[in-house]
Amino acid sequence: MKEKKASNNVQALREDRLLSKAELARRAGVSVLTIDRVEKGAPCRLDTKRKIILALGLKVADRGQVFED
User: Fold this and answer.
1) For 14-44, how does the pLDDT look when each residue is reduced to its tens digit (9 = 90+)?
2) How far apart are CA 29 and CA 23, in angstroms?
3) CA distance 65 to 59
């Protein structure tokens, strides 16, 4: 059974802020591999989404700009 890819704007928002995957991962407190997987549409935990949103300098209320689910 194939997992559905989650649609998100993490890569575009990261690149707009001139951040590397490593820098975003450091700010979010997650691994670079996690950032890579999320950008490719792999599902992730709600807590991970929250960390990424905050690391991008957004508020949790702005989650719709980052994750489309």
Assistant:
1) 999 999 999 999 999 999 999 999 999 999 9
2) 10
3) 10
Rounded to 5°, the CA angle 64-4-61 comes to 15
Question: From the centroid of its chain, how far is CA 21?
Answer: 10
Distances, alpha carbon 7 to alpha carbons 26, 39, 67, in Å:
23, 9, 7
- Rounded to 5 degrees, what are φ and ψ at 57? 85, 20
Query: Distance (Å, rounded) from C-alpha 54 to C-alpha 44?
Result: 15
Q: What is the pLDDT of residues 48-63, one digit of tens each?
A: 999 999 999 999 999 9
pTM recorded for the entire structure:
0.90
